[in-house]
Structures are given as C-alpha cells and as structure tokens.
TrEMBL record:
Heterodimer with TRMT112; this heterodimerization is necessary for the metabolic stability and activity of the catalytic subunit BUD23. Interacts with GRIP1. The keyword S-adenosyl-L-methionine applies. It holds the Pfam family WBS_methylT. Residues 224-249 are annotated as: Disordered. It is found in: Cytoplasm; Nucleus. It comes from Calypte anna. It catalyses: a guanosine in 18S rRNA + S-adenosyl-L-methionine = an N(7)-methylguanosine in 18S rRNA + S-adenosyl-L-homocysteine. The keyword Magnesium does not apply. It comes from the Eukaryota. This is 18S rRNA (guanine-N(7))-methyltransferase. The lineage of its organism: Eukaryota, Metazoa, Chordata, Craniata, Vertebrata.
Length: 249
C-alpha cells in the first residue's frame, strides 16, 4: 500500500540509529498506518491529528502509539528535545489552506515549524512527505521551515515520473547533515540544480514576517480558485487580474 511505502521511505530518510529504540512524532497520523510501520521497526511513537474520526479508527485498530487530537497549525505541544525524529505523510500541505478567516498560512506554518524544532532533539531530523499544489506553496513551506531554524531541503524521488514522483522535505535540527539523494535520480547534476533552486527560493518569502501576501496576484488567483470550487460565479483570469488601477484625476 502506498501509505506504508511512503512511511517506510520517510523512516529511512530519518537515518535513525539501529539501537536503542527511538521516540518519533507522527504529524497527521490519521488511522495510524504510518505508526504501524514505526512499531514494526521497533520504535515508539506519538501521533497527532486534527480529525477525531481518523483517531477513532486508529483506536479501533488498537495501534501501539499514543494519540493526540490537535491542530498542528497551533503548535506542537511537547517539551523541548523530546523526540528523536518526526515523520509526516501527506499532511503539512493542508497548513497552506486558510480554512477560517482567522487562519494565516504563513503564521500557522511558522508556529508549526518553530514548535516542532523545539520538540526535536539536537542532531535529529524531520521528514515530511507532502503534495504541494504549486511551486509557490513549496516555497512558502520551505521558507517558513528555514525561518524556524531548520536546515536541509527537498528530496524528490522519481522526479521524471508523473505518477511515482514524491516530495520529502528533509529537515535537520542543529548540525546540518548531508541531504540524501532522491530515488530514481539519473544524474547528480539534477539533484544539485534542485537544491540550489531550493536555497534561492527561500529568500522570496523573507518579507512576509508571518503574514499572508495579501492582495498579491497569487493571493487573488488562489481566492478566485477557491470560490470557483465552492460553485460561485467568478470572473475569468486575465493579464489584468490583480493589477493596481491608476488613480483618477
């Protein structure tokens, strides 16, 4: 099953020592499928999820990890240095959505990453598998992770395959490690280009300071797209969309 495969890959990218057993955090643990793999590997885990229904399924399945109902956009509520690593499968990109008026995706991402950084032990890693909607979303997530103190970058498995391509944000706490190579990368050059692109992309969101880039073209296009999905009538996008009008005299 794809969830188990991604969990296996995420744990592999953590580069955990063979013994003793580690304590891992599973962000967006859902019904505990990732946790099952962590348990099989002989490690302990605590899972966080915003969905009580999914956690109920995990309880019914009698998973071995401890479960916490929580919104990670409000922070990771654990003591400093508690975890030896963190994995997350297909969850972090949801922090880019403003589901409530009070939600600011950059602020929520920064809160998540800064509290996660604190909860992880020095020298540990977080590996977050995600499905970004576009390059802007990828930039926002990675830039907020860097602002929180993480180093690292994106590991892309099978970059030339539309179906098998997977993004893993591999983050280091404290000493910067060597970024693992993605599976199915034919040449090291492509890897270097991607990493270089990642570091240059970080600078674009520096001016945000925890606030969404309100009224920008991207912000307006996303808002229009959201309204279309809600079935509302929205004007077609043109080259004039989000352009400022000149003042009238």
């Amino acid at each position: 099953q794809i969830q188990s495969q991604m969990s296996e890959r995420a744990v592999e990218l953590l580069g955990l020592p063979e013994d003793p057993p580690c304590l891992l955090l599973d962000v967006g643990c859902g019904s505990g499928l990732s946790g099952d793999y962590i348990s099989e590997e002989g490690h302990y885990w605590i899972g966080m999820d915003i969905s009580s229904a999914m956690l109920d399924v995990a309880i019914e399945r009698e998973v071995e990890g401890d479960l916490l109902l929580a919104d990670v956009g409000q922070g990771v509520p654990f003591r400093a240095g508690m975890f030896d690593g963190c994995i997350s499968i297909s969850a972090v990109q949801w922090l880019c959505n403003a589901d409530k008026k009070s939600h600011s995706p950059p602020q929520r991402l920064l809160k998540f990453f800064s509290t996660l950084y604190t909860a992880l032990a020095r020298g540990s890693r977080a590996v977050l598998q995600l499905y970004p909607e576009n390059s802007e979303q990828l930039e926002l997530i990675t830039s907020q992770a860097m602002r929180a103190g993480f180093t690292g970058g994106m590991v892309v498995d099978y970059p030339n395959s539309a179906k098998a391509k997977k993004f893993f944000l591999c983050l280091f706490v404290g000493a910067s490690g060597v970024l693992p190579k993605g599976l199915g990368t034919e040449c090291a050059d492509a890897e270097e280009i991607h990493q270089a692109k990642f570091t240059s992309e970080r600078t674009r969101f520096r001016h945000i300071k925890g606030k969404s880039v309100k009224k920008s073209r991207d912000w307006i296009l996303e808002k229009k797209e959201r309204r279309r999905r809600q079935g509302k009538e929205v004007r077609a996008d043109t080259k004039y969309t989000a352009r400022k009008r000149r003042p009238r005299f």
